[in-house]
Amino acid sequence: MEGEMKNFGKVWLSVVLSLCYCYAIGKIVPRGKIRLLAILPVICLFLILPLNLSTMHLAGISSFLVAWLANFKLLLFSFGQGPLSSDPSITLPRFIALASLPIKTVQAKPMNGHKSPLNYTVRVLLLALVIRVYDYSDYLHPLIMAIVLCLHMYFSLDIIFGLFASLPKNLLGMELEPQFNEPYLATSLQDFWGRRWNLMVPSILRPTVYDPVVRLFTRVTGREWASLPAVLATFAVSAVMHEIIFFYLGHVKPTLEISCFFMLHGLSVMMEVILKKALKNRWQMPRVVSTPLTIAYVLATGLWLFLPPLLRCNALPRAFDEYAATYAFARDLVRALA
């Protein structure tokens, strides 16, 4: 664990220094192709850096933040767009925080706000309870254990992203959007993927993929139907990035199950859009029906296509080994400082 923590420190030192360079480039190089060429080596470096990490948590989170989000933000920044270009007077610490963390600033305090410390305490306790259920896995149906794993993933991501958001919020006074908006209350797949689940992803895919494809197809199909290929293209890019992240996690050859999962959901969202346009909002399914159907569809397709590649990475044994190693590392560190 000590060696992995050193590699983790080196990776993120490289990220910070690279973003300092990009910040300087933004001050002296005009937006456009020249700035893109100047930043391109950093984008390539960010694709390589996660390969230096081997643990599930550090490699997974770092690959998501650096190889995906930071790179997409830098691509937008190259052309004077996106969160890194929204404020011309942005300071270096804010630039680094916005580029490297799963956060999005807002002008005013969001109505939902961030979850309170009590809310996160409850989520930590629920995560501990979920982890405790694994002790009884021999007595529970595999379907129940698969759902437990889904809950494990959700609570872990919610807590981790909440911790990431607390750093710039408390240190830099940045007002941020929450990353999860009660996805278990989604009334449709559009609602789930676009307004409730891991909101940093749709907010970065919209300007980099969705909007350009809409502009391209508007000339061919008109504005009304241009959203359909844009939705499919967005899910296709998300599929590719998830395949890359899973490669960082397990260093195994992709089976394309992850791609099938996201393309299936892309096609499903397209069908939702078509039906809504056909019905012209004259009929809407009651929430008491639409929410269970949406969550059931996400769980069923996730258990079918998303979880198997994760389990082939030995996700659970590695995760529990990392929990134990982290505890031992923290205990030894406290003893050394005492």
Describe the structure.
This protein is globular. The protein contains twelve helices and no strands. The chain has helices spanning 2-28, 33-48, 56-78, 92-100, 117-133, 142-171, 189-195, 200-221, 223-250, 257-279, 287-312, 315-337. Helix 1 packs across helix 4, helix 2 (33-48) runs antiparallel to helix 3 and helix 10 packs antiparallel against helix 11 (287-312). The protein has 338 residues and is mainly α. The model has no long low-confidence stretch (mean pLDDT 88).
Low-confidence stretches: none
* Shape estimate: globular
Q: How many β strands by DSSP? A: 0
Helix count from the secondary structure assignment:
12
Sketch the major β-sheet.
none
Give the SSE string: HHHHHHHHHHHH
Could you tell me the strand content as a percent range? under 5%
Helix percentage range: over 70%
Structural class: mainly alpha
Please state the average pLDDT score: 88
Rg result: 21 Å
- The CA-CA distance between the termini, in Å, is 21 Å
